[in-house]
Amino acid sequence: MTTRFTKEFLWGGATAANQLEGAFDRDGKGLSVADAMPGGKQRFAIIGSEDFDWTIDEEKYIYPNHRGIEHYDRFKEDIALFAEMNFKCYRFSIAWSRIFPQGDELTPNEAGLRFYDQLIDECLKYGIEPVITISHYEMPLNLAKKYGGWKNRELITFYERFAETVLTRYHEKVKYWMTFNEINSAFHFPALSQGLVKSNGAADYQNIFQAWHNQFVASSKAVKLAHELRSDIEVGCMIIYATTYSIDSNPVNQVATMVQNQEFNFFCTDVQVRGEYPAYTSRTYAKYGVDASLLEQAAEDFELLKQYPVDYIGFSYYMSSAVDEVSPEADTSIGNLLGGVKNPFLEASEWGWQIDPDGLRIALNELYNRYEKPLFIVENGLGAIDEVNPDGTIDDDYRIDYLRRHIDAMADAVADGVDLMGYTPWGCIDLVSASTGEMSKRYGFIYVDLDDNGVGTLNRSKKKSFDWYKDVIKTNGERV
Questions:
Q1: Fewer CB atoms < 10 Å away: N or C end of the chain?
Q2: Catalytic site residues (predicted)?
Q3: Which residues are catalytic?
Q4: CATH entry 3.20.20.80 includes domain 10-474
């Protein structure tokens, strides 16, 4: 009998510490960049303004990340629900500022480490494999304010100390790791992953490419550390992937599509997977006004990148993108940190993200055929407004339909010959949205009673998709 997925396939779900843990100032935790991001639909506009300097103003804004969904206190309840869904793995992140509150300390915060001891052990109790993102949009705020974010080479040392601390502590229990979440997102919005806003250099691509170089070096150092600790450990990179189409067959648009693919989808992975900068780097630098001679790079950096590439490619896939360089009046679309023109062949979510399951099959083939490394879909999902019925049930058939179509696309890619490790849909439990700080933009199989203003019981309840996904995992994706 031919099966769609291997028996080792890692089914699960994904979250990030800053979006669900809460307890932002407890047990020695320091502030993170996420803690300084206001909630609401104008979040990105506020952070992207000229005068934003990471100052927290509680009289003017609300900060939903401070409370999250109180996972810090309720993680045992949440992990039990994941286990009930038959999770094989659970992707989560370690809050950097919970381990090194300011980011530049020499010794870690033991209370923070003990929390993750408990979280990891709770997963293992149910046979759930932890998949840990070392840095997921939550660098210590002090590193952004005092050091200027990742454009400062000193951050390599601070990250290496953080990575060494958690890898040494948890490597015997945790096999799967990722170094940076959606590292390529800095192309459009460097505040999240690089700690760069306009007031400390985000408007200058010289800083963004310097920050990337520093992150590439830090990532390779983490891979080196991990491999020295455990021979079978697997450390991946993690990117946003947006399958990109030309809007038509005009060669101008075809070339623009090629360039966008190189810059956004492939640049970071070319370095982290192949271990060297790609051939088009000089052209990209010239386009964005980057002076290579001014980049702080050492000869040993390139040796490190070559010697310690990542073991697999983790990526998020929510939508595809269409390119039209010829028609300035073309309707634009919005999406996960990137725009593009509207694709007339696709429907869109309530937040305007174009839904394209076939684009996931294309993404998997493009990535695997380019790199021939195992792939791991570590984010995919539908953000939607869920209505609670009078009897407390939630009929999220739209979410089931979205995920079903993407799982079918995954199966087609596996049949194409793609080596796919696993699938962890985003926000397996409702949490605070990264793009807007809202609770109303829900992704989970588990509903959390909390609104955008922080009002609610925080009680957990199962949506219709909960039992559906439980059956998907039970049948290893045969029944969707």
A1: N
A2: 379
A3: 379
A4: yes
